[in-house]
C-alpha cells in the first residue's frame, strides 16, 4: 500500500510540475489563472496523500484550508486585475 | 525523491517569478510559489507553517498583489531610469550573489554542534506552559514577547495604510464581481470558513493550528465578502472597527499584565489558569488579527477616478 | 535528518536569487516579490538548518510563523506606499536617476514641486 | 521606598507596555482627547524611566525574564549602563519631540491623527531594542522600528516623502533579511538566541563568521553606513521636523547599538584587526563623503541630513579603537564613542527641530531663503547655532568632549590615521554649518515674508541644543555610566 | 482485505493519472473554453478518486467527512473559477488575446 501511495504522490507531483509549466507558458491571463486554480487542486490531492503517507492528520487541515481559499485568487483576479476602466460593464453582467 | 524534486523546483519557480516579462505572470507564479512552500513545510514536518503559508502565502498575499496590480495598469512613461548604472549594478549583484553563495554553502554544509538542545527544553517545560502543542507553547508562553510585538508590527502596517488612505468618495469607484453563482456559493462558503477558523483556533492548543492560521482564514472570509461587493456588518462604525483592530494587542497586554500587577513577571500566566489565559488571548488575537489582515487589504488606497486627482495630503495652511 | 538538507540548500538558493532580483529589478512590485522570495529562503534555512541538527524543533517553526506574519505586513505596507506613489506620479519605480548624489545640489523633483526660487 | 527600589519587581517591561498602551488609546480615542493622552503617557514613561534609573543605581545590572521563562527557552530583558543611557536619551529626546510636534502638527490636521500612534510605536520599538538580549527579538524590534519610522516619514503623503519612505522601507527590509539570515545560521549551529549566553559558546566557525558578516551588512545598511547610506538623506529631510529629529537623533542609532552588542559583547574574539579597521574605514569614508555632500546641498534639511551621515561615521571608529589597543585606549574610545552618540543625538535632534522652525518661518526650504534670518529670527537661529557648535566639536560642547576622548585614544593606540579623520571631519562640519550662517546674515530687503514660529517650537530646539552643549561640561556622570558597561568588565 | 487494498490502489493510481491527464489536457487543448472544460471535469474526478481511495484507510468518521468536504469544496471552487474566467474571456476577448508587457 505504501508503494502505491508513493507512486500516486510522485504522479501528482509530476502533474504539479506540468501545471507550473502551464502557468509559465500561458498564453493568456485567463489561462494562467486557471492553471493556478488547477495547481491548487493538485496541491490539495497531494496533501491528502501525504497526510496518509506521513501519518500526519494535521495535513488534512492544510488541505481543507487550501481548498477553502482556492477560489480567492481567481475572484481577486476577476474583480480587481481586469482593466480598471471596465468596471461599469462588469457590474451588470448576468449569466 | 519527493524532497529532491520539490527542493529543485523551488528555485526554478523563484527564477520564473523573477524573470517573467509580464508582471501578471510573475504574480501568478508567486502564488504558485506560495503553494509549493506550503508543501515544503509539510515535508519539513511543520504543519503549522504549511497552514499559515496556505492561508497567507497562497491566499492573502496573492490577493493583495493581484489587487495592487489592478491599480497599476495605466501606461507609465517608458524607459525606466538607471540604464546607465545597470551594467554596474549587474556586476555588483552577481559578485554579491557569488560571494553570498560561497559563504552560505560553507555555512550550510558545516557540521552542526548545537550547544543547547532546545527541542528537549521545550519538551521539558511544555507541561508548565498550559498548552500541549509545542509551537503554540513557544508562541504564547515561552516567547510571548515576540508575539506581542509582532501583533504591534501588523498594527503599524495597518495604521500607515489608514493614514495614507484616499478620501472615501474614491473608494466607491472600485470594481467588484457580481455573479449570482458566486453569491450563491458564498452564502455557504463564508459560514464554512468561519467554522473552519474557529476549529483551527480551538485545535491549536493541542495540535497544529492556532490564532494566526485561524485569523488568516477569517480574514480571507472578509476579503471575499468585500470582493463580492457586500458590505461588512459594522463597517460604518469607525470606532467599533478601531476597537477591533487594537483589541488583540490590548487584550494581550491586559492579560499579560495580570501577574505583573500582582508582583509577578510580565507575560507570565497564572499557574492553574495558563491554558485558559492562552485560549483567551488566542481568541482575542484571532478576531483582531483577522480584522487587521483584512484591513491590510482594505486600507490600501483605492484608485482615483478619472478627473479626480487624489488628495495629496496636507499642505501647511 | 538528511531529508531536511535539500530544503536548506534550496533556501540558500532562494536567498541568492531573491537578493539578485531585489538589486536588479526597478519595478517596485517586482522588488517586493524578490523580497518575499528572499524571506522564504531565510525561513527555509532557519527551519531546515535547525532541524538538521536536532530533529523537529518547534522553536524555529514558531519564529518562522512570526516571520511570515511580519513579511505579509511588510508586503501590505509596501503596496500601500507603492499605490499612493503610483497615483501621485504614475511611476512604478523610484526616481533613481535623480539620486541626490549625482545632482548638483538637491533632488530636482523637489525643486519642481516646491518651486523654490533662487 | 528604598527597599522597594532594591527588592521590588523590576519596572523594565513598563517601558514598552506604556508606549504600546499609549498607541492603543490614541487609536481609539477621539481627536480632542489626544493632547491629554499624550501628556499623560509621556509623563508616565518619563517617570518609569526615572524609576528604572533609580532601581539600577540600587541594584546594578540585571536581567528580567519575561513570563518567568529562563533562557534559552524564554526571552529576557537586560539592563546595563549602556541600555540605561539610551533609555534616558530616548525618553528625553522623544518627550521634547512630542512637545514640538504638539504645536507643529496643528498645521497638518490630516497627518496628526495617525502621528501619535506611530510615534508611540516607534518609542516602544526603541525601548525594545535597547533592552533586548535576544537575536530574534531584535529582529521583531527592528521591524517594528522600521515600519513605524517609514510610516512617520510617509505621513504627509507628499510625493517627496513617499519616494523617500519607499526607499527607506526597501533598505530596511533588505537589512532585516540579512539580519534574519544571520540569526538563522546562528540558531542552526548554536541552538540558542540569547546574546549573553551565545557569548560563552560562540566559536570561530564558518557559519559564525558568515552570520556575523551578514548581520553586520544588514545593520550597516540600517544605520546608513557609507556606501549604503543613500536612503537616509531623503528620508530624514522630507519628514516632518519632529520626525526628522527623532529619526536622526535616535532611530539611526539603533542599528549601531546592536552592532556594538553583536561584536563587542557576543563575539569579541571574532573581531579581527583588519575587520575592525575596515569598519573604521567605512566610518571615515562616511565622515568625508557625508561632510562633502552636506557642503554641496542647497536645501537646509538635506544639509542637516547629510551631516547625520557624516556624524554616524564617527561612531564606527569605536571598532578599530577598541580592538587590541590596550586597556586605557579602549576605555577612552568606548567612552568617547558613546559620548559622541549621545551628543550627536541631542545636537542633531535640536538642529532638525531648529531647521524645521527656520523653514516654517521662511516659507521655503532652500538656503538662500535664509537671507535675513540673522536679523529677524535670532531665536530660531540660536538653537541651530548651538547645536552646530556641538557638531563641529568646539569646546565646551559634548561633541568636543567626545572627539577629544576619541583623539586621545587614537594617539594612545598609535592609530594616527583616525586623528586625521577626526580633525578633517570637524573642519568639514564647520564649513557646512558656516555656510548656513553665511546665508542667514545676508541682508534681506523683505522682512514681511517671515513668520515668527511659536515660542514652544524654538524653546524645544533650544533646550536640546543646550543639553548637547552642557554635555561637555557635565560629562562626568554619563562617562561613568558608559564605563560601567565596558565589555570585558574593565570598570 | 486484499481486494480492498487492490481497489484502493486502483482508485489512487487512476486518480493520480487523471490529474496528470487533466493537466496535460490544459496543455493540449487549443482555446480557453475547452481548457476550462478539461480543468473542471478531469481534476475533480481525479481528486474524487483519490479521496475515495483514501477513505477506507481513515479510522474516524469525522475525518472521512472532512475529506469529502474537501472534495466538494474543490469541485465548487473550480466550477466557480471556470464560470468567472469564462465570463471574463467573453467580455475582454480583444484585450485578452495578446500579452501586455508591464515593464
TrEMBL record, chain A:
Keyword Plastid listed: no
Cellular component aspect of the GO annotation: plasma membrane
Residues spanning the membrane: 35-54, 61-79
Keyword Membrane (UniProt): yes
Keywords recorded for this protein, A-Z: Cell membrane, Membrane, Transmembrane, Transmembrane helix, Transport
Coiled coil: none
Membrane topology: Multi-pass membrane protein
Cellular localisation: Cell membrane
MF annotations from Gene Ontology: sodium:proton antiporter activity
Database matches in Pfam families: MrpF_PhaF
Recorded family membership: Belongs to the CPA3 antiporters (TC 2.A.63) subunit F family.
Protein name (database record): Multicomponent Na+:H+ antiporter subunit F
Organism: Marinospirillum alkaliphilum DSM 21637
Automatic annotation (TrEMBL), chain B:
Keywords from the UniProt entry: Cell membrane, Membrane, Transmembrane, Transmembrane helix
Pfam families (alphabetical): MbhD, MnhB
Occurrences of domain Na+/H+ antiporter MnhB subunit-related protein (ranges): 184-289
Membrane topology: Multi-pass membrane protein
InterPro entries per UniProt: CPA3_antiporter_subunitB (IPR050622), MnhB (IPR007182), MrpA_C/MbhD (IPR025383), Nuo/plastoQ_OxRdtase_6_NuoJ (IPR042106)
Gene Ontology annotations for the cellular component aspect, listed alphabetically: plasma membrane
Cellular localization per UniProt: Cell membrane
Domain of life, source organism: Bacteria
Every MrpA C-terminal/MbhD domain range: 9-73
Keyword Membrane appears in the UniProt entry: yes
Record field: transmembrane: 26-42, 49-66, 86-110, 148-166, 186-204, 210-227, 239-261, 273-297
Family classification: Belongs to the CPA3 antiporters (TC 2.A.63) subunit B family.
Protein name: Uncharacterized MnhB-related membrane protein
Organism the protein comes from: Marinospirillum alkaliphilum DSM 21637
Source organism phylogeny: Bacteria, Pseudomonadati, Pseudomonadota, Gammaproteobacteria, Oceanospirillales
UniProtKB/TrEMBL annotation, chain C:
InterPro entries in UniProt: CPA3_antiporter_subunitC, NUOK/Mnh_C1-like
GO-annotated cellular components: plasma membrane
Membrane topology: Multi-pass membrane protein
Key words, A-Z: Cell membrane, Membrane, Transmembrane, Transmembrane helix
Keyword Flavoprotein: no
Transmembrane segments: 6-25, 32-50, 62-82
Annotated region described as Disordered, given as residue ranges: 96-118
Any one Pfam family match given in the protein's UniProt record, by short name: Oxidored_q2
Keyword Cell wall biogenesis/degradation part of the UniProt annotation: no
Subcellular location: Cell membrane
Family note: Belongs to the CPA3 antiporters (TC 2.A.63) subunit C family.
PANTHER family: ANTIPORTER SUBUNIT MNHC2-RELATED
Protein name per UniProt: Multicomponent Na+:H+ antiporter subunit C
UniProtKB/TrEMBL annotation, chain E:
Annotated TM spans: 6-27, 64-86
Pfam families tied to this protein: PhaG_MnhG_YufB (PF03334)
GO terms for MF: sodium:proton antiporter activity
InterPro entries with a match to the protein in the record: PhaG_MnhG_YufB
Transmembrane helix as UniProt keyword: yes
Keywords for this protein: Membrane, Transmembrane, Transmembrane helix
Signal sequence, start to end: none
Highest taxon, organism lineage: Bacteria
Protein name in the entry: Multicomponent Na+:H+ antiporter subunit G
Taxonomic source organism: Marinospirillum alkaliphilum DSM 21637
Amino acid at each position: 500500500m505504501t508503494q502505491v501511495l508513493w507512486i500516486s504522490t510522485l504522479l501528482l507531483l509530476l502533474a504539479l510540475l506540468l501545471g507550473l509549466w502551464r502557468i509559465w507558458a500561458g498564453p493568456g491571463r485567463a489561462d494562467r489563472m486557471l492553471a493556478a486554480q488547477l495547481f491548487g487542486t493538485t496541491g490539495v490531492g497531494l496533501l491528502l496523500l501525504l497526510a496518509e503517507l506521513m501519518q500526519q492528520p494535521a495535513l488534512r487541515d492544510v488541505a481543507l484550508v487550501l481548498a477553502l481559499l482556492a477560489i480567492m485568487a481567481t475572484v481577486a483576479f476577476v474583480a480587481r486585475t481586469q482593466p480598471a476602466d471596465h468596471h461599469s460593464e462588469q457590474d451588470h453582467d448576468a449569466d | 525523491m519527493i524532497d529532491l524534486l520539490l527542493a529543485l523546483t523551488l528555485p526554478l519557480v523563484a527564477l520564473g517569478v523573477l524573470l517573467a516579462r509580464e508582471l501578471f505572470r510573475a504574480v501568478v507564479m508567486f502564488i504558485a510559489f506560495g503553494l509549493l512552500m506550503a508543501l515544503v513545510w509539510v515535508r519539513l514536518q511543520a504543519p503549522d507553517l504549511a497552514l499559515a503559508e496556505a492561508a497567507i502565502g497562497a491566499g492573502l498575499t496573492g490577493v493583495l498583489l493581484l489587487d495592487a496590480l489592478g491599480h497599476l495598469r495605466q501606461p507609465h512613461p517608458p524607459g525606466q531610469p538607471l540604464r546607465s548604472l545597470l551594467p554596474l549594478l549587474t556586476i555588483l549583484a552577481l559578485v554579491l550573489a557569488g560571494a553570498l553563495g560561497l559563504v552560505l554553502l560553507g555555512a550550510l554544509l558545516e557540521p552542526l554542534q548545537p550547544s543547547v538542545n532546545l527541542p528537549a527544553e521545550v519538551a521539558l517545560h511544555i507541561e508548565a506552559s498550559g498548552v500541549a502543542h509545542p509551537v503554540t507553547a513557544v508562541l504564547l508562553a515561552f516567547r510571548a514577547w515576540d508575539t506581542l510585538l509582532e501583533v504591534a508590527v501588523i498594527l503599524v502596517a495597518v495604521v500607515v495604510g489608514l493614514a495614507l488612505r484616499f478620501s472615501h468618495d474614491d473608494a466607491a469607484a472600485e470594481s467588484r464581481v457580481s455573479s449570482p453563482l458566486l453569491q450563491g456559493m458564498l452564502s455557504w462558503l463564508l459560514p464554512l470558513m468561519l467554522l473552519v477558523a474557529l476549529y483551527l483556533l480551538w485545535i491549536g492548543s493541542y495540535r497544529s493550528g492556532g490564532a494566526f492560521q485561524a485569523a488568516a482564514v477569517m480574514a480571507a472570509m472578509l476579503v471575499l465578502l468585500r470582493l463580492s461587493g457586500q458590505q461588512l456588518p459594522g463597517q460604518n462604525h469607525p470606532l467599533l472597527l478601531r476597537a477591533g483592530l487594537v483589541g488583540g494587542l490590548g487584550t494581550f497586554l491586559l492579560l499579560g499584565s495580570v501577574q505583573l500587577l500582582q508582583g509577578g513577571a510580565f507575560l507570565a500566566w497564572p499557574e492553574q489558569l495558563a491554558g485558559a489565559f492562552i485560549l483567551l488571548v488566542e481568541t482575542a488575537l484571532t478576531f483582531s488579527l483577522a480584522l487587521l489582515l483584512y484591513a491590510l487589504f482594505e486600507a490600501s488606497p483605492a484608485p482615483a477616478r478619472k478627473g479626480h486627482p487624489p488628495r495629496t495630503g496636507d499642505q501647511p495652511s | 535528518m538528511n531529508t531536511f538538507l535539500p530544503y536548506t540548500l534550496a533556501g540558500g538558493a532562494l536567498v541568492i536569487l531573491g537578493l539578485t532580483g531585489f538589486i536588479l529589478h526597478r519595478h517596485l512590485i517586482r522588488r517586493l516579490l524578490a523580497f518575499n522570495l528572499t524571506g522564504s529562503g531565510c525561513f527555509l534555512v532557519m527551519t531546515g538548518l535547525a532541524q538538521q541538527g536536532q530533529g523537529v524543533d518547534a522553536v524555529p517553526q514558531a519564529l518562522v510563523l512570526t516571520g511570515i506574519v511580519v513579511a505579509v505586513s511588510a508586503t501590505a505596507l509596501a503596496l500601500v506606499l507603492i499605490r499612493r506613489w503610483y497615483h501621485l506620479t504614475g511611476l512604478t519605480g523610484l526616481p533613481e536617476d535623480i539620486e541626490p548624489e549625482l545632482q548638483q545640489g538637491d533632488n530636482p523633483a523637489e525643486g519642481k514641486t516646491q518651486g523654490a526660487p533662487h | 521606598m528604598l527597599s522597594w527600589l532594591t527588592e521590588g519587581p523590576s519596572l523594565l517591561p513598563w517601558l514598552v507596555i506604556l508606549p504600546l498602551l499609549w498607541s492603543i488609546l490614541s487609536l481609539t480615542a477621539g481627536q480632542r482627547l489626544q493632547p491629554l493622552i499624550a501628556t499623560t503617557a509621556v509623563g508616565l514613561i518619563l517617570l518609569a524611566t526615572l524609576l528604572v534609573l533609580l532601581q539600577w543605581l540600587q541594584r546594578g545590572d540585571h536581567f528580567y525574564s519575561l513570563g518567568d521563562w529562563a533562557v534559552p527557552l524564554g526571552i529576557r530583558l537586560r539592563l546595563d549602563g549602556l541600555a540605561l543611557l539610551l533609555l534616558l536619551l530616548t525618553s528625553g529626546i522623544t518627550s521634547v519631540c512630542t512637545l514640538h510636534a504638539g504645536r507643529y502638527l496643528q498645521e497638518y490636521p490630516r497627518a496628526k491623527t495617525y502621528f501619535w500612534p506611530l510615534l508611540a510605536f516607534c518609542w516602544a520599538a526603541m525601548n525594545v531594542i535597547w533592552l533586548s538580549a535576544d537575536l530574534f527579538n531584535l529582529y521583531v524590534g527592528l521591524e517594528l522600528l522600521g515600519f513605524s519610522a517609514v510610516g512617520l516619514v510617509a505621513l504627509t503623503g507628499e510625493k517627496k516623502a513617499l519616494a523617500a519612505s519607499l526607499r527607506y522601507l526597501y533598505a530596511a527590509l533588505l537589512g532585516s533579511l540579512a539580519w534574519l539570515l544571520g540569526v538563522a545560521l546562528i540558531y542552526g549551529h548554536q541552538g540558542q538566541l540569547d546574546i549573553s549566553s551565545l557569548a560563552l559558546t560562540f566559536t570561530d566557525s564558518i557559519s559564525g563568521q558568515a552570520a556575523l558578516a551578514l548581520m553586520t551588512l544588514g545593520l550597516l545598511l540600517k544605520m546608513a553606513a557609507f556606501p549604503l547610506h543613500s536612503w537616509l538623506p531623503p528620508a530624514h529631510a522630507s519628514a516632518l521636523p519632529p520626525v526628522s529629529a527623532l529619526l536622526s537623533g535616535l532611530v539611526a542609532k539603533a542599528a549601531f547599538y546592536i552592532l556594538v552588542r553583536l561584536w563587542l559583547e557576543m563575539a569579541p574574539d571574532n573581531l579581527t584587526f583588519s575587520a575592525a579597521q575596515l569598519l573604521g574605514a567605512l566610518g571615515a569614508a562616511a565622515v568625508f563623503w557625508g561632510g562633502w555632500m552636506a557642503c554641496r546641498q542647497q536645501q537646509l534639511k538635506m544639509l542637516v541630513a547629510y551631516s547625520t551621515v557624516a556624524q554616524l561615521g564617527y561612531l564606527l571608529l569605536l571598532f578599530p579603537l577598541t580592538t587590541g589597543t590596550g586597556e586605557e585606549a579602549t576605555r577612552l574610545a568606548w567612552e568617547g564613542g558613546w559620548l559622541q552618540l549621545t551628543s550627536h543625538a541631542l545636537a542633531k535632534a535640536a538642529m532638525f527641530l531648529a531647521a524645521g522652525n527656520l523653514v516654517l518661518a521662511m516659507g521655503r526650504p532652500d538656503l538662500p531663503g535664509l537671507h535675513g534670518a540673522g536679523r529677524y529670527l535670532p531665536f530660531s537661529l540660536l538653537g541651530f547655532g548651538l547645536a552646530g557648535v556641538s557638531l563641529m566639536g568646539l569646546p565646551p560642547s559634548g561633541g568636543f568632549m567626545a572627539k577629544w576622548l576619541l583623539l586621545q585614544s587614537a594617539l594612545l593606540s598609535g592609530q594616527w590615521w583616525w586623528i586625521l579623520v577626526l580633525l578633517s571631519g570637524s573642519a568639514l562640519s564647520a564649513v557646512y554649518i558656516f555656510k548656513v550662517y553665511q546665508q542667514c546674515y545676508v541682508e534681506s530687503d523683505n522682512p514681511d515674508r517671515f513668520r515668527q514660529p511659536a515660542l514652544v517650537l524654538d524653546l524645544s530646539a533650544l533646550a536640546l541644543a543646550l543639553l548637547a552643549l552642557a554635555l561637555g561640561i557635565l560629562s562626568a556622570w554619563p562617562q561613568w555610566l558608559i564605563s560601567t558597561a565596558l565589555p570585558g568588565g574593565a570598570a | 482485505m486484499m481486494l480492498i487494498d487492490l481497489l484502493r490502489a486502483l482508485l489512487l493510481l487512476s486518480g493520480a493519472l487523471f490529474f496528470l491527464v487533466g493537466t496535460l489536457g490544459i496543455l493540449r487543448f487549443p482555446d480557453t473554453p475547452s481548457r476550462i472544460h478539461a480543468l473542471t471535469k478531469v481534476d475533480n474526478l481525479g481528486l474524487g478518486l483519490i479521496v475515495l481511495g483514501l477513505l477506507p484507510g481513515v479510522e474516524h468518521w469525522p475525518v472521512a467527512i472532512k475529506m469529502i468536504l474537501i472534495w466538494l469544496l474543490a469541485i465548487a471552487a473550480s466550477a466557480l473559477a471556470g464560470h468567472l474566467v469564462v465570463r471574463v474571456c467573453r467580455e475582454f476577448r480583444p484585450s485578452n488575446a495578446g500579452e501586455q508587457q508591464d515593464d
